[in-house]
Each structure stands twice: as C-alpha cells, then as structure tokens.
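Pasting two entries for a bug report.
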Amino acid sequence: MFLQKIKTLLVAAAILPCFIQPASAHVVWFDYKSGEYNILFGHPEEGPESYEPSRFKEAIVYDSDKQILPFNFNGKQDALSLTAGKNVAAIQGFFDNGYYAKLSNDKYLRITEPEINNYDNVGHYLKYTKAFYDWSDALAKPFNLPL
C-alpha cells in the first residue's frame, strides 16, 4: 500500500512539469502573404510584436536544390518583409535581439554592450529561424547556421 502511494507520487511529480507553462523567449518567424514573406517577432500564440528592423541581421533564401536565390528587404513601420522570385523553398534568418540584464525583481532591462560590466546577470539573445515552403532531398540535409 505504502509502496503504491510512493509510485503514484513519483509519477505525479514526473508528469507535473508537462502541465506547467514555462516563460518562453521571443522567436522570429516568416509569414507569407501576397507575395511577401513578413518577418515577425514575438510569441506566435499571442501574435507578433513590433521590433527595430535593424535587429534582423541576415536572411538567406533557397530554392528546392538548396541554391541561394536573390531577394529584397522591404522596410515597414517597426518590421521588415522580404520578396523573392518564384521557387522559394526555404528561408533562413538571423535576428540579434541584443543584451538584456536580469534585475533583482525578475524583470529584464535592455542594455548596450558597453553597459554589460555594470550588471551581474546579462544575456545576449540571438534568434535563428528557418521556414520551409517546399521540400526536397537537398533541403533535408543540415543547414550551416553561424554559431
């Protein structure tokens, strides 16, 4: 009887983290609409947030043979999009969200690189993203992301 209760308690303790929603970081994703691939930032389940377009550092557009395609960035108010020719199969992106210091009240403060030494708990938040719009054997192989 006692052993059964311990087993039940251990199973409950193992399953409990699955039901707790952790605080998740922002992500970057692409949303295709009317010939443009909008570059969005935020939490997809809550919707995009505005961001400084200069934080989006790089995009690479591929066809289904994993050949790089030309594209254009389109500036929008507090966001970016890109347009590319036909046959877009995948897009890879890199977003530098900058430095944030964690304060004692569990809040975060955006800081500049020269201010890093003024804080104890600082993170540099980089976002990499990849979106697929077609599939091929070439695209199934790993992509080289800068680390």
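Entry 2 (this is the one that rendered wrong in the viewer):
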Amino acid sequence: MLRGRARRGQGGGHGDPLDADQERRVRAVLALGGVPQADLPDGVQQVRLRLLERAASGQEAPRDVSAWAAVVASHLAMDWHRAKRRQERLGERLAALRRPDPAVGEDSSVLSVAVARGLDELPDAQRQILVLRFYADLPVRGIAEELGIPEGTVKSRLHTAVRALRARLHEDEVV
C-alpha cells in the first residue's frame, strides 16, 4: 500500500500526483501560511500543477514529494500575502474610513486567533520556516535543502520567529 501511495505521490501513472495525506498537508501549510479557506482548493491545484509540470518537463521526481509539496505550498502562501499587501496598499485610504469588524474570530479559541495574528505579523521568510518546521514537521536540514539556504539561516530565522511569536502571545496575555 505504501509503495503504491509513494508512486502516486511522485506523479507516476495517470492518477493524482498528490495522495490524500499529502493534500491534507498542503492544505494545512497553506492555511497556516494565512491563505483563506476559500482559496485553499486553488492552492492545492497550484501544487498539483507544479508537480505535473515538473514531470512533463522531464525533471526528476522530488526525493520527498510530501516535503517538496509543503515547501511549494509555503511559497504559494507567501505569494498570496504579497498580493494581499499590494491590494491593501491600493485600498489604504478606503480602509481608513471603515471601522474594523469586532466579530472576527469569535468562534475560534483565543489562543488560535492570537497565534494566527502572530503568524501574520511575522516576515514572510520567518513564517514560512516556522510553518515548515512545526506544522509540516520538516527537520532543519530538510528545510535548508528544500529552500536552498544554509542550516544556520534556517535555525536563525526559526529562533527569531519563535521569539517574536512568543512575545506576541505574552503581549496579548494569551500565555
């Protein structure tokens, strides 16, 4: 069963290039990266498309499809935030006229909302590494290899991101 799943996960055959576990992981990385629920299916499709394009171009299948897909998903989340920031800058003047909606997050736990806000405030590179390390459960070495950066850079960004998130949670008196 695992052998069949691995083949499917690496783009083999005519089936879906992502198995169900990989798709759930991609959705989670996107969600933790701040992509709204409504945009998650598009993000998953983007990861599938990139995996299929990779195979169609003759590139070798990723050594670990699940890790590769998680990294691609984290890049997509960063792209989503960049696009969101561009839209926010364009509508900045209108936003000043509106009042913030106090109902945001009423159904979520206080901690979940605080963590989500804290993640949103982190620089893209720190958020990406934090999500890959603690949600996608990639080791520091794996993150460094997938992102093409030194392990020390991963560790430094991870340390800085954890410290900033912890400070935010203390500031919000959540922990």
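Dev reply: Rendering is fixed now. As a check, the viewer should reflect this: Confidence is low (pLDDT under 50) at residues 1-13, 104-108.
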